[in-house]
Amino acid sequence: MAKQEDLFKKVISHAKEYGYIFASSEIYDGLSAVYDYGQNGAELKKNIKDYWWKSMVHLHQNIVGLDAAILMHPTTWKASGHVDAFNDPLIDNKDSKRRFRADVLVEEYAEKLNQKAEKEIAKARKRFGDSFDQEQFVNTNPRVQRYLEERTQVLERLAKSLTEENLQDVKALIEELEIADPETGSKNWTEVRQFNLMFGTKLGASSDSATDLYLRPETAQGIFVNFSNVQKSARMKIPFGIAQIGKAFRNEIVARQFIFRMREFEQMEMQFFVRPGDELRWYEHWKEKRMAWHKSLGLGDENYRFHDHEKLAHYANAATDIEFDYPFGFKELEGIHSRTDFDLKAHEEFSHKKLRFYDPELKENYVPYVIETSIGLDRMFLAVLSAALKEEELEDGSQRTVLKLPAVLAPVKAAVLPLVKKDGLPELAQDIVNDLKWDFHVQYDDKDAIGRRYRRQDAAGTPLCITVDHESLEDQTVTVRYRDSMEQKRVPIAELSSILTEETSFRKWIGEEF
Fold first, then answer.
1. Which of 228, 219, 293, 288 is closest to 71 using CA atoms?
2. Backbone phi, then psi, for 288, in 5-degree steps?
3. How far is CA 21 from CA 37, 47, 106, 312, 359, in A?
4. Are residues 339 and 264 in the same domain?
5. Is the pTM of the predicted complex or chain greater than 0.90?
6. Model confidence at 6: pLDDT above 70
7. What is the structure's pLDDT at 131?
8. Furthest CA-CA distance within the chain
9. Are residues 64 and 20 in the same domain?
10. Which residue segment(s) compose the domain that 177 sits in?
11. Per-residue model confidence as pLDDT tens digits over 198-235
12. How many CB atoms lie within 10 A of CB 18?
C-alpha cells in the first residue's frame, strides 16, 4: 500500500513538473478539487477525446454527435430525478472533524479484502509456477474463500441498505466492521445523512426576478431532451446512438485522489437507443466493445475488470463498471448501464411532448430503451498517466524516468534535436519541424546536451526523438530514437512522415476489427 501511495505522489508531482496538471488558482493557494490542464495536459486531454470520438462516432454509421448546453431548463432535473434523488450518503468523524462518503468507506474495506485474496493468489502462483491452477486454488483455499465471501456479504448488505435508504444500517455496518478514519484511526462516527450534489445558480438580471437553475451534474440529459431533434434531422433509425463530450459539475463534499473526483469534470457519453426487449443484448454488446476500446491502448489488460452493480439506480435494469487499477486500487473508470425507457418517459411526462420512434418494421410507435456508456475523461486521463509513468534501471546502472504514453495519445509526437547549435544543424532541424508540423505535433529542442534532451523528452512522454547531426547535411538522413526501447535507427529525412504515421495513427492503434 505504501508503494502505491508513493507512486501516486510521483504521478501528481510529475504531472505538474512536465506541464500536465496544475492546481487551479495556485497563486491564491488553489481551490479544493479543481485543477487546470497545462500545455501537455491540454494536448493529452484533446487526444483522448479524439480517440474516443473517432471510435465512437466516425467508425459507426448509426452514431452521431451532439454538444448540448450546460444550462438547462430546471424542470429537466426534476424529470430526471436529480432534484429528489441525486444524493451521497455522508458521515463525519467526531474526533478528526473529517467528512467521508459512507458507501466509499465500506467499498474500500471490501477492496482491502479483495487485495488480501489477490495477495494469497500471487504467493501461490509464485510458489507453484507454471503448474499453478488459479481457479482450483481460489475454490479450495479456505483463507481466500473467507476473504471473498466476506467481501461479497459486505457489498450485498451495503447495496440493500442503500436501496432501502436505511442509513442507520449503513452506520451500523461501518461500526461492525470497525472501519476507522484512515488518517487518525478514530472510530467515533456521526449518523449517516444524505447530501444533494447539484450546484445551484441564477438566471436573470435581478435577484427578484431570477430563475433558479442548476449546473448540469451529468451530460446525459442534454441527449435525452434532444432525442427527437437528432432523430428527425439526422433521419436515424433504431438502433442508433447520440454521443457527447462535455463538462459536468457536482458539489462533491469528499473530493480527493487528485483528478479522480473533482467538482468540475468532463464526461464522454453515448446513449444508444434500442427496441424494448433488445436492451440486454445491446448491453452485452457495448460491454464488450468498450472493454476492447480500453485495451486497445496497451495499458495492460490486467489493469481492467468489470464490476457489476449490487445496487441499481432507479432508472436501470442492468449496470456494470469498467474498473481500472489506479495507484490507489481498482476504481470506476467507465459506467455501462441499461437505463430502460425511464428518461424519455419522464421527459414526456414533464414536458408533455412525445419522445417516441415510429418503427416501420414493427409498424408501431414506442419509447426506445437506452444503453448508456459513460466515461470520465479526467479519470481516463489519470489512468493513462499513472499506467504510463515508469522508473527504469538501465544496463549501465543509471535510472531514467519515462512516461510511456500510447503514441496515439502523446501530446508531442516527435522532438527534433540538432546535435549542436551551429554549422547549419539548427536550420535543417527547423526545416524538418516546418515540414512535419502540418500533420503532427512536433517540437524543436536545442537546449542542453543530447543525452539530457533524450531524458527530458522521455519524461514528457514524447514517443520519438529525431537527431540532426553533421552527417544529415551530407546525406539527408537523421537518427530516430524510440522512447520505449531507446533503439536508434538511421533513416532518410524523406521517410520521417511515414514513420510517424506508422507509430501514431488512429487506425493502427484502434485496430481494423473495432
1. 219
2. -65, -45
3. 5, 15, 30, 34, 48
4. yes
5. no
6. yes
7. 83
8. 79
9. yes
10. 87-196
11. 888 888 877 666 788 989 999 999 999 999 999 999 99
12. 20
- Runs of H (alpha helix) within 71-214: 75-80, 82-85, 102-128, 134-140, 142-163, 167-176
- Rounded CA gap, 303 and 330, in Å? 8
262 found inside a domain: yes
The answer to whether residues 56 and 510 touch, using CB atoms and an 8 Å cutoff, is no
Which residues have CB under 8 Å from 451's CB, separation 6+?
none
In a domain, 231, yes or no: yes
Residue recorded with cell 487551479: 24
What's the pLDDT score for residue 254? 63
**CATH code at position 396:** 3.30.930.10
Examine residue 206 and state whether it is found in any structural domain, yes or no: no
Q: Which of 374, 401, 428 is the last residue of a domain?
A: 401
Answer yes or no: do 281 and 364 share one domain: yes
Arithmetic mean of pLDDT over the chain: 92
CA distance 54 to 509: 12
Interhelix angle 167-176/142-163, nearest 10 degrees: 160
At 197, give phi and psi (nearest 5°). Answer: -100, 0
Angle CA 261–216–275, to nearest 5:
100
Residues 237 and 351 placed together within one structural domain of the fold:
yes
Q: Is 198 helix (H, G, I), strand (E, B) or coil?
A: coil
Regarding whether 302 and 271 lie in a shared domain, the answer is: yes
Query: Is 319 within the bounds of a domain?
Result: yes
**In angstroms, rounded to a whole number, what is the distance separating the alpha carbons of residues 103 and 455?**
43
- Distance from the first to the final alpha carbon of the chain: 36
Any residues with CB less than 8 A from the CB of 493 and at least 6 apart, and which? 432, 472, 476, 477, 478
- pLDDT tens per residue across span 332-365: 999 999 999 999 999 999 999 999 999 999 999 9
Are 175 and 252 in a shared domain?
no
> What integer pLDDT is reported at residue 250 of this predicted model?
87
Distance between CA 165 and CA 155 in Å, rounded? 15
Contact 216, 248 (CB under 8 A): yes
Residues 303 and 361 in one domain: yes
**Structure confidence by residue, pLDDT tens digits, 377-389:** 999 999 999 999 9
Angle between helices 2-17 and 377-388 (to 10 degrees): 100
Half-sphere exposure of 497 (CA within 13 A, CB side): 9
Q: How far apart are CA 224 and CA 87, in angstroms?
A: 21
Could you identify the residue written with the cell 433521419? 235
Question: What H or E segment, with its residue span, contains residue 243?
Answer: strand 240-249
Count structural domains, the chain. Answer: 3
| In a shared domain, residues 440 and 495 | yes
Element spanning 15, H or E: helix 2-17
Contacts of 31 (CB under 8 A, 6+ apart): 23, 24, 25
